[in-house]
Design a protein that fits this description.
This protein folds into 2 domains: 80 residues, Beta Barrel (OB fold (Dihydrolipoamide Acetyltransferase, E2P)), CATH 2.40.50; 159 residues, de novo design (two linked rop proteins) (Up-down Bundle). Helices cover 38% and strands 22% of the residues. It contains 8 helices and 8 strands; from the N terminus they run E-E-E-E-E-H-H-H-E-E-E-H-H-H-H-H. The strands form 2 sheets. The protein has a 5-stranded mixed beta barrel. It has a 3-stranded antiparallel β-sheet with strand order 7-6-8. Strand 6 and strand 7 form a beta hairpin. Helix 1 runs antiparallel to helix 2 and helix 3 runs parallel beside helix 5.
């Protein structure tokens, strides 16, 4: 039987299970993605519900056989992150990316620290777009899917601002002399790519054009790994900006509502 005691972790996703329980997906420091049953966390008398919150540093204890473990203990390890509006939706997006890309019970301490750093940045009200692009690229880097940010994949030469490059998620950038009209989304100027490298290194961006190019680049990079199913967090974000209303996180996002972390 597998036993894990007082492991640092964050809740990524929950969903109802039977009458008073929930299935919980956790990102842990030493064991990566963990899936567990949390009993007695739903209903009016659920005393443990407050501990099972997203964006809340936890210490958890679990036991069991196979991939689905039993969550026996969850306690707050530090104050929760105060995230509202677009920053809450962005954090939900990070959770969904991790759910799509990680395999259960594979140690990923670098990804745990990367996630925690991203939550800190989201709370500090720095550049939202830069935070997301940096997290996306560093996540792919931790998983072995990153590419060289500074050189042409075919020639090995440094990128130049005036050159046009074709992006391939598997190989990186390749200079093109006569861009094909049917692949405009895959084409980037050297200036845009050099700016993207600066975003990844310094987590800052300068202008709207750079932000749009970086978003387009990372969507192409992530697509082979997250599959064709749309990301719910993106859909919710688009709906929020259409209606200017925050949907109920408990019924639409699959995570228990984070009111306790934002009050």
């Amino acid at each position: 039987m597998k036993r894990i005691d007082l492991q640092p972790a964050y809740v990524l996703h929950t969903r109802p299970y039977r009458d008073t329980s929930a299935l919980v997906d956790l990102l842990s420091l030493d064991h990566g993605l963990l899936r567990a049953v949390a009993r007695g966390v739903r209903g009016k008398s659920a005393g443990r519900r407050a501990a099972i919150q997203a964006f809340q540093p936890l210490l958890v204890s679990l036991a069991g056989r196979g991939e689905l473990l039993s969550l026996s203990q969850a306690e707050h390890a530090a104050p929760g992150f105060r995230l509202l509006g677009d920053r809450l939706f962005s954090a939900m997006y990070l959770n969904e990316l991790l759910m799509r890309l990680l395999h259960a019970q594979e140690a990923q301490p670098g990804i745990y620290r990367l996630y925690q750093q991203a939550l800190v940045r989201l709370q500090q009200h720095g550049s939202l777009e830069a935070c997301l692009r940096c997290f996306e690229f560093r996540l792919l880097e931790e998983l072995g899917y990153a590419w060289d940010l500074q050189h042409d994949a075919r020639t090995g030469e440094m990128l130049t601002a005036e050159q046009i490059y074709l992006f391939d998620p598997e190989h990186g950038y390749e200079a093109v002399q006569a861009p094909e009209a049917e692949t405009p989304q895959k084409l980037f100027s050297g200036k845009e790519l050099i700016g993207f490298a600066d975003v990844v290194v310094h987590a800052s961006d300068d202008d709207a054009d750079s932000r749009q190019a970086a978003k387009r680049l990372m969507r192409q990079a992530l697509r082979p790994h997250i599959g064709a199913k749309p990301l719910l967090s993106r859909t919710l974000f688009a709906a929020k900006h259409g209606s200017r209303q925050l949907p109920d996180a408990d019924t639409t996002s699959g995570i228990l509502p984070p009111e306790d972390n934002t009050g």
